[in-house]
Predict the structure.
Amino acid sequence: MEFSTKTCAEFIEVLASKAPVPGGGGASALAGALGTALGNMVGNLTVGKKEYADVDQEMRELTRKCDSLQADFLRLLERDAEVFAPLAKAYGMPRETEEQKAEKDRVMESVLQEACIVPMEIMEKCCETIEILQECAEKGSNLVISDAGMGVAFCKAALEGASLNVFINTRSMLNRERAETLNHKAEAMLQKYLPLAQSVFDSVRDRLK
């Protein structure tokens, strides 16, 4: 679908429209990519500077990781739209007979599980990026620490947004054991990384005052 290659204006226009995709999942992936790019910028504006020579290799490694994560987020932006199509189709399946109801339940269970994979991966990538942004904020150039703070704010929003896509799908699952396993995994990431992201943001803000 190549949403990741659209212009900003084009993406915003289709996001605001009645089109089923992109939606919240794609927006979360994009927010994660933006947060990662800001961390990458901090790294690229730190490496090669004499006053930061002692962390030069560390910052180069962080930018390498950011390059990979940026690509992951853009891939997930596209993948989120792809997995929604069969889910939307399944919601429209008939339930007039017992056989139809059973078939719809079977298909729904399969596509709901598939639909959870992408936002869960977005959450995992956000967690990785928040840890990187923590290092960027601590070791990066003082001239761009505000960008590390903004980056972590984007990733915090992406983490929370992606979690809602997990929860809206798990609530419809018939297999409650599987649903609760996914919910627990998502909640664990929220409990660990939302406070960390806020701590990094607060630290940057305090340093700027």
